[in-house]
Amino acid sequence: MRFLATVTMILSAAALGAPGVARAQGDAKPKLYNTAKQKLLEGKQVFSFTQTKFDIAGYCEAAKHYDYTWFEMQHATLGFKDVEAMIAACPHAGAIPMIRLPDAQEWHIQQATDIGVLGVIVPTVDDVERAREAAKWARYPPVARRSSGGGQARSIWGINGINYAKTFNDNMLVVVMIESPTGVANAFEIASVAGVDVVILGNNDLSVFSGFAQDDDRYQALVKKVYDDTTRAGKIFGQASAVYAKGHPLSNVAKFFQNGPSNDGWKPAGGRNTSAPPEGEETKPAGAAKPKPASRK
Fold first, then answer.
1. CA–CA separation, 159 vs 59, rounded Å?
2. Where are the domains of the chain?
3. Is 216 exposed, middle or buried (0-12, 13-18, 19+ CB in 10 A)?
4. If phi over 0 gives left and psi between -120 and 50 gives alpha, with beta otherwise, what is residue 195?
5. What pTM did the predictor assign?
6. What is the pLDDT of residues 263-272, one digit of tens each?
């Protein structure tokens, strides 16, 4: 496809990391206890496993092998008490806990951070107002409006001499998902919101809402626009579907993915995550072909 070949030519002259990542690499700040965010700032890709049900043993085993946990609360019936108990059972297993919330409401983000997550993923961000809400409640003043509540977060991360309240803002990760043509149109304004760290595409919903299969040049043009706008705003770009981590013109510059390979080659019984992602999140919708690598012509 001519579009994919053009994208490859453009990217051949670009650095492997997004502009925001490149700036972060020159930052002299100490390494973060949010190891997934640290990897992103070093220009590396990060992958998760998706936890959709209450399963302490399964969660604690899988968490040893991935960069972060994608706790699913948009499409699954997990509650905050479920997630709280799983985090408490193995708080430093390896994978950094993050939650995909159903929305950007204050109480959702407040409870998520109080139970110890270091990242929130907000779906269906169509405009700058929703992005601002996500960022507004995710960090402490003076940069945002998170209130000082209780919960187990301080006892999990405020250890070994670390002041949780003073270090939390740097370690927090706010991820917004663009999943519709409206969101694509507003991508630069969304990505430019202070406090938004990562912008990812909800690949399957974008295909459904746009009406374009994922191997359609028109779909790929939407993807490229979001990438351009995200990096122009100095933020990190990603795609929900880990099939885009390799073999796609944007693979080298996309850093944040749902699911994907473990860090050590570990695979759960049956070869899938211990808790499979909701329908449509890991696999593409019917009729959408696997993304094709760029032509060498």
1. 23
2. 2-25+33-262
3. middle
4. left
5. 0.84
6. 999 998 765 5
